[in-house]
Design a protein that fits this description.
Belongs to the class-III pyridoxal-phosphate-dependent aminotransferase family. InterPro entries: Aminotrans_3 (IPR005814), PyrdxlP-dep_Trfase (IPR015424), PyrdxlP-dep_Trfase_major (IPR015421), PyrdxlP-dep_Trfase_small (IPR015422). With 465 residues, this protein is of the alpha/beta class. The chain contains 16 helices and 15 strands. The protein has helices at residues 12-25, 33-39, 65-68, 77-89, 102-114, 128-145, 166-171, 197-200, 206-224, 250-260, 282-287, 314-320, 339-354, 357-373, 411-421, 443-464; strands at residues 44-48, 51-54, 59-62, 119-125, 153-157, 189-192, 229-234, 264-268, 293-296, 308-313, 381-387, 390-395, 424-425, 427-429, 432-435. The strands form 3 sheets. A 7-stranded mixed sheet has the order 4-10-9-8-7-5-6, with helices on both faces. The chain has a 4-stranded mixed sheet with strand order 1-2-3-13. Helix 4 runs antiparallel to helix 13, helix 9 runs parallel beside helix 10 (250-260) and helix 14 (357-373) runs parallel beside helix 16. It binds pyridoxal-5'-phosphate. Residues 68, 127-129, 132, 161-163, 235, 239-240, 268, 270-271, 297 line the site of pyridoxal-5'-phosphate (PLP).
């Protein structure tokens, strides 16, 4: 394994060249054009475990976990070998029509074993957005097959993130992702309130807030008509929306409403699966729900290869694949079931099982939650939200009124830059610092994150004076 503290793969000259080439040619999503032009980017060239190194040789603990995805940590030789072996043996084969490859079949079988209930059917995609896109197309297909073509509208939530295609971005509900320069679909998509106790409960107890959220769902169904609603789509814990942990019992109650009204429940587990919350899938183990459809990606390969999956129930399969109908699901991507990506996923799952990473993640995750909670006493910290390896610190100008700093101040970035100088990367989202590190983190690495965050927050408080 490369020791990145010693690795100097890029000289200063290379780094300057990379900075120029980046500015000249590489358009990154979500990078403000002016910032890119003026400041360039943080160019990462190496990684091991939870650590990464930039082109100038600076090392960081990556508490972002790549992008919620490097669950088993970077630089694992076993993963490299599995990917290399598969590339040598069969680098590509398509998964259209009557074609399949052994790795894609083995992975589908394994996912069916790991998924809750009768979710035994697997459609492999290229990532999370294409998994969610597939889930919505599956809902349409299913409703048409059962003779309910009008039952296709989808209910999602404010602050949700479901991907970056035209459809999945329209399903999402983050205002920041809806700049006026982009267009969005609105027909047939409805957004419910965000189950965000800190900002939305407004003096109500958690139980009262939950009742209001369920009542809102029922009211929306009455307004739109259950006969027109095909699916409810929800992340178990909203990730990019700010690690929003819903009130206790929320998912179970929303699922019961879905059952009552014949609405499919889609759990978007692109972030929450494969150890991030200490389970393979969080829907059943953490939230007591067996969805009709689960979407997953990210931790499925721990970021070693791009891959996603849409896993759905036998109940749906029996309708869409009814014998004698001659139907086929005319949907797929060139890289659906990519053998190298599937080999990476299989090895990743083998490592999670062999190293008992799930119970370990739950144990260290609890320690992470406890240590992070100590930051709540700091002056500009409004709330600390953490569940296992999903965490967020929310900054406020006034702890009593929960008033936010002006958006232009970009308070999350202030803290993030001070943490970055100390060798820690967190993800700033306006007034938040979001974290999702490798689930293999040690207690010492947890301590490092919390200590650096504390120092960076205190330095920010000083600098704001
Ligand atoms: N769904 C959720 C909950 C996500 O957080 C993301 C990405 O962050 C996606 C879907 C989209 O996944 P991808 O970026 O792999 O397309």
């Amino acid at each position: 394994m490369t020791n990145i503290t010693e690795s100097k793969r890029f000289s200063k000259f290379d780094s300057a060249r990379l900075i120029d080439a980046d500015k000249a040619h590489y358009m990154h999503g979500y990078h403000v054009f002016d910032d890119h032009r003026e400041q360039g980017s943080l160019t990462i060239v190496d990684g091991e475990g939870a650590h990464i190194q930039d082109a100038e040789g600076q090392r960081y603990l990556d508490a972002v976990g790549g992008m919620w995805c490097t669950n088993i940590g970077l630089g694992r030789e076993e993963m490299v070998e599995a990917i290399a072996d598969q590339t040598r043996r069969l680098a590509y084969s398509n998964s259209f029509c009557d074609m399949a490859n052994d790795r894609a079949i083995e992975l589908s079988e394994k996912l069916a074993e790991l998924a809750p209930g009768d979710l035994n059917r697997v459609f492999l995609t290229t990532g999370g957005s294409t998994a969610v896109d597939t889930a919505i197309r599956l809902v349409h297909f299913y409703q048409n097959c059962r003779g309910k073509p009008e039952k296709k509208q989808v209910i999602t939530r404010i602050n949700a993130y479901h991907g970056s295609t035209y459809l999945t971005m329209s399903l999402g509900g983050k205002q920041a992702d809806r700049p006026p320069e982009f267009d969005f679909l609105s027909d047939g998509i409805h957004h419910l309130s965000c189950p965000y106790p800190y900002r939305e409960a407004q003096g109500r107890s958690e139980a009262e807030f939950l009742e209001a959220l369920v009542a809102e769902f029922e009211a929306r169904i009455a307004e739109v008509g259950a006969e027109r609603i095909g699916a409810f789509l929800a992340e178990p814990i909203m990730g990019s929306g700010g690690v929003i942990i819903p009130p206790e019992g929320y998912h179970r109650r929303m699922w019961e409403v879905c059952r009552r009204h014949d609405i499919l429940y889609i759990s978007d587990e692109v972030v929450t699966s494969f150890g991030r919350l200490g389970h393979f899938f969080a829907s059943e183990d953490e939230f007591g729900v067996i969805p009709d459809i689960i979407t997953t990606a990210k931790g499925l390969t721990s970021g070693y290869q791009p891959l996603g999956a849409c896993i759905f129930s036998e109940r749906l399969w029996e309708v869409i694949a009814e014998p004698g109908t001659g139907r086929c699901f005319s949907h797929g991507f060139t890289y659906s079931g990519h053998p190298v990506a599937c080999a990476a996923a299989l090895k990743n799952i083998e490592i999670i099982e062999r190293e008992a990473l799930l119970p370990r993640a739950r144990e260290v995750g609890r320690y992470f939650e406890e240590r992070l909670a100590t930051l709540a006493e700091l002056p500009i910290v409004g709330e600390v939200r953490a569940k296992c390896f999903m965490a967020c610190v929310e900054f406020v100008a006034d702890k009593a009124t929960r008033e936010l700093f002006p958006e232009e101040l970009n308070i999350g970035e202030w803290v993030h830059l001070r943490a970055e100088r100390r060798g820690l990367l967190v993800r700033p989202i306006v007034h938040l610092n979001v974290m999702s590190p490798a689930v293999t983190l040690t207690h010492q690495e947890v301590d490092f994150i919390v200590d650096v965050l504390r120092d960076s927050i205190l330095e920010t408080v000083e600098d704001l004076r």
